[in-house]
Amino acid sequence: MRKFKNTYTMILLAVLLSVASADAQFLYFDNNDIDIVKSEIKNDDSGIKAIADKMKMMADYILDKDPVTLTSSLAPNSLGSINDYYSESPYWWPDPINPDGEYIRKDGQRNPERFLDHKKLFAKMYAAVTTLGISSYLFNDERYASKAEEFIESWFVNPRTRMNPNMEFAQIIKNKPVIRGVGIIETHNLVKLVEALNFLNASGYLRKESFENTQKWFSEYLNWMLKSEFGVDEKDRGNNHSSWWAAQAAAYSFFISDKSALEDIYQYSKSFLIENQIEGNGQQPLEEARTLSLSYYTFNLNALSTISAVLKNYNMDLFNYKNKNGGSIIGAIDYLIPYLLNKKNWDKEQIKPAEEDAPLFLGLAGLQLNNEFYLKTYETLYRDQKKEQYLPFDDPFEYLMDMVVITKLNKK
Fold this sequence. Notes:
Elements: H1 2-23, H2 31-40, H3 49-62, E1 92-93, E2 104-105, H4 117-138, H5 142-157, H6 190-202, H7 208-227, H8 229-235, H9 240-255, H10 260-277, H11 285-288, H12 293-312, H13 329-341, H14 360-369, H15 372-386, H16 396-411
Antiparallel strand pairs: 1-2
Helix pairs in contact: 2-16, 3-4, 4-5, 4-6, 5-7, 6-9, 7-8, 7-9, 9-10, 9-12, 12-13, 12-14, 14-15, 14-16, 15-16
C-alpha cells in the first residue's frame, strides 16, 4: 500500500509540475524552448549540460548563504533613510582647482572613491535571486525556491530590510544638489530578474503571498518611475537612459500584469527613442559620441531589444519599425555585427576595451524574430569562446540565454 501511495504522489507531482509549465508565462522565452532546455540539461550530447552543471553549482553555492540586505551598509552621505538605495555618479570627480567645489565630469572615467556598497549589495541580490529562480524551475528543486524566497523577502518585502521602491538618492553628484533621474539606470538588471521571478513562480514552490508582495514592490517602483519628477527626468534624457527607463517600465508592466502602460511605451519608443536615436544607416549618434562609444552602442541596443521583446508578447513589433529616416532597431543590429566580429575596425572613441559581456540584443532579437543568423552570431561571438570557462558569479541570465540559443539552433 505504501508503494502505491508513493507512486501516486510521484504521478501527482509530475502532473502539477506539467500544469505549472503549461501555465508558465515567460517574458523573453518561448515555453516550448524552455521545455526543451529542461529536458536536455542532463543530456551529454545536447551541448548545454556543461552550462546547466555550472548553473546548478552556482545555485548550490548560494544555498548556505544568508540573504543580502540594503540596510546592512549605511551610506554616510545619504540624505535618505536606511532603506533608501544610495550611490554616487561614476564619472564625476573632485575639481583639482577647487577641491571643495562642485565635482566635474570625466566621461568614461569611473571615480574609484565613490560609495559602492549598495551597488555591490544589489549585484549580489540580483545574482542570487536570478540563479535560484531559474534553477528552481529547470531542476525542479524546492530548496532553490525556498532560498530565493528568503532573498526576495529581505530585499523587496520585509519593512525593516527592504529597499524603498525609488532611486531618489542614486548617482548623486557631490556638492551639486540637483534632481536627476539618472540613477534609475542602476536597476536595469531587474528586467532580467523579473524573468527569474517568473521561473520561480512557475516552479510551483513559491508561496503565492511572497510572489504577490514582490509584485507589489515592482508596482510601487513602476508608479514612481512613471509619475515622479525623477522618473520624468530620466524618461526625457533621450539617450540610453531613456531606453533603459522604457525597458524597465515595459518589463515591470508585464510582470505585474498591467497592460495599460505598454501601448504608451510602444508609442513612446517609436516616436521618441527610435525616431531620435537611430540613423537610416544604423548609426546611433548619441551613443557613438561617448568616450566608450562601442560599449554604449551595445548597451543601448540591449535596452531597445528588451523593450521590443516585451512588446512582442502583445503583437507590437518594434524590432522592424522604421523612423522617418529609415532607421530601425534591426538596422542598428545589422550595422553593429561586423564590428563585433572585428572590433579593431571600430574607428570611434573607445578609451578602454569593450567588455566581453554577451550582447543580449542578438539573443533577444534572434529568438523573437526566429533569425538564425543572429542566433549563430550570438553563439559564435560569445558562447563558444567561454564554454569551458563558466564560473560562479557570471550572469545567470546569460547562462539561460546560452542554453536556449543552443537548443534553438539544434532544432534547425
